[in-house]
């Protein structure tokens, strides 16, 4: 089989398509003929050498969001069979720690993520596969796991309800667009930011209620407060946007942080946090049940994930270049 592998770090030119042995399933695994695999900023962190994957792991096949058709299963697998259309929940959990027992599973002490979907075939844990109804497209499904599942879990953590106003700094990428769509789907309202007028125009079509065209934290803080203080902030940017996201909350408001695209550390105005009884929460991914709920939303016609562009396996390097350039809106999906 062929796979798009990282052969070095630092730039998209280190992504190349190479031959690999066809995988055989372990007893608890299934082999999936990959129809679609989306890419995430997490994969770009790895390619840029910012995560824990090292030279010894090269060539490294990234790709967490796998949708496709089962072609073979191991001896102990009973939940799927060859021919089933499936979507992988990329969560890897130990199943035995206190956090696995008490839930949510994303709190698992040994939590990690599946990698390997940017390939013609993927060997995956069979019990992490979600069945796809016939009318759910593989490309749409592949958009869901990392971005939409995380955004949904953040909304749940922030206790966002009907009519609430939610601030999403950086609202035009995978997590950002997912957040805007899901906020709209539950009857809440949103404020989204971007440095690109073009991308904000596309956000308007998805039901965003207010947009702010800026990348400047101070300017964004004033613009949000001028609209209204918000019930919740969903923040994947971090860096200087953490204090902005905190400051614009109403008294008792909640900010959930899931990323650090704009920087790994932040100064927070502590008086604002405790005097105004605000809450700041961290979040990683979501649960397989969250993912099943998202598949149901697509099947019911209540969610149409935004895929900016699809790429062939040979164009995977270009997909990473486009994400790196911030020239895309929503999700990028490779169709191996
Ligand atoms: N904890 C978790 O479980 C989890 C799950 C998913 C994602 N994440 C994290 O969430 C972040 C977003 O992931 P994604 O896949 O949605 O990424 P993405 O698609 O690349 O996000 C693009 C968005 O981020 C903005 N942006 C990019 N670089 C920026 C910068 N340097 N400063 C300010 N804004 C910037 C873009 O703004 P413009 O429109 O202005 O270009 C755009 O709105 C990543 O840090 C990722 O690691 C974490
Ligand atoms: Zn565990």
UniProtKB/TrEMBL annotation:
What InterPro entries would the database entry show?
ADH-like_C (IPR013149), ADH-like_N (IPR013154), ER (IPR020843), GroES-like_sf (IPR011032), NAD(P)-bd_dom_sf (IPR036291), Zinc-ADH_QOR/CCCR (IPR051603)
Enoyl reductase (ER) domain location: 10-334
Tell me the segments the record calls region Disordered: 1-23
What protein name is recorded for this chain? Answer: Alcohol dehydrogenase catalytic domain-containing protein
Keywords, A to Z, come to:
NADP
Say which domain of life the source belongs to: Archaea
Q: Which GO terms describe its molecular function?
A: adenyl nucleotide binding; anion binding; oxidoreductase activity, acting on the CH-OH group of donors, NAD or NADP as acceptor
Could you provide one GO biological process annotation from this protein's UniProt record? small molecule metabolic process
Q: Which organism is it from?
A: Halomarina halobia
